[in-house]
Amino acid sequence: MKKKVLIMTQNFYPVIGSAGNRMKNIYQLLNEFDIEADVLTTEPAYPNKNLYNDKTFWDDEALNKKTKKIIRVPIKNKKFSNHIVSRLYFYIEIMWRFLIKLWQIRKENYDYIMVSTPPIFIVFSALIGKFFLKSKLILEVRDLWPDSLVGVKTFDNSFILKIFRILEKRMYRLADHIVINSKGFESHIRSKLKKNTPIVYLPNGPRAHEVVRSKKYEGKFRVVYTGNLGLAQDIDHLKLIASALQAEGIRFDVIGYGIKTEEFMRYIDEHQLDQVYMHQPTTRKKSLALIENSNIAVAFLNDADVFSTVLPGKIIDYMTCRTPIVAGIKGTAAQIITNNEAGFVFEQQDIQGMIEKIVELKNNPEKLKRIGENCTRTVQDVFLWENNIKELVQIINE
């Protein structure tokens, strides 16, 4: 008899970013591996709901078909805000609507609820729902919360943070299985557990058809950045990189979204950076095409300790496109880049070192090619979804 799984997530197709793509892949591949997977999610709203009025984002016909397998709950908030009260209301609304829907589908006989965090509030609805659905719980952790909240310096109320940490510990302990997308999370989570709860590493990655296996370096030399422009991404250092690349006459393409996007665009205008090209948020397919058409990709993360445990999805996307990485980053992501010779890692403040390395690589196409080959080999050996999903399939079929 097929196992039946309900995936609960705020981020799902066609939502842009690594979280939405991750949950889409898990949903599709579980079904391909003969597990009956359904999804409970919201209407697409990140970074804002109006973005998805553009049919360009709805580019997967198989997922566009009306089906009872994908349950979307409506939300009143039309824009994702960084204001703490507005965001709290947003999360509580999702939690409440998910709880109502879980009650309505309580007779569906799901063997597992797989819930993705952050945000943690969706987990609360899953923890309650698992009892009246009589399901086991797989907790999928994409970020360490509330440490990440502290890391972006948006919240510092010690009393409420203490409550959040108690809730975090409770969340881990009530899970039957835990899935992580970065090995850097494991020791932190283990320190919160009383029992030996199984923890499975399931990294972000490409599907096999997305991997770029050959690439020609022709035309104007280009550097690219893609993804969130938020509090975790160290926008100030990205500004400095943009100015430094301008001074070197190197084209810099940015596909950015998030709360710091307007600030970055103002900086470009004020400093007349005509070598910096801003692109509107777009589909994964078009984003990967832009990365593939670039010679080097850059990445930054806030230097808070919690972000040293993170493996950003963009790092794997860069390697998927055979594009060498120059990053101001540390910890888990830095180890992946360095150990696999997929690029070069610097201290965040070492903008000059990063620029010098970019110029060096610009003048050494053979070295660029070798690093690109390392990127492809690493992705094929370590990060393909078709291979890694088997870990999750094994858990569910036990």
Please describe what this structure looks like.
The chain has 398 residues and is an alpha/beta fold. It folds into two domains: 4-202, Glycogen Phosphorylase B (Rossmann fold), CATH 3.40.50.2000; 208-382, Glycogen Phosphorylase B (Rossmann fold, 3-Layer(aba) Sandwich), CATH 3.40.50. Helices cover 43% and strands 17% of the residues. The protein has helices spanning 18-32, 61-64, 84-104, 120-133, 147-151, 158-174, 186-190, 235-247, 261-270, 284-292, 313-320, 332-339, 351-362, 365-383, 385-397; strands at 4-8, 36-42, 70-73, 112-117, 136-141, 177-180, 199-201, 222-228, 251-257, 276-279, 296-300, 325-328, 343-346. Helix 12 (332-339) links the parallel strand 12 and strand 13. The radius of gyration is 21 Å and the shape is globular. The mean pLDDT is 90. The chain crosses the membrane at residues 112-133.
Short description:
The protein is built from 15 helices and 13 strands.
What are the secondary-structure elements, in order, as H or E? EHEHEHEHEHHEHEEHEHEHEHEHEHHH
What is the β-strand count?
A: 13
Q: Could you give the order of strands across the largest sheet?
A: 3-2-1-4-5-6-7
**What is the tally of helical segments?**
15
CATH superfamily of the largest domain: Glycogen Phosphorylase B
CA(first)-CA(last) distance: 13 Å
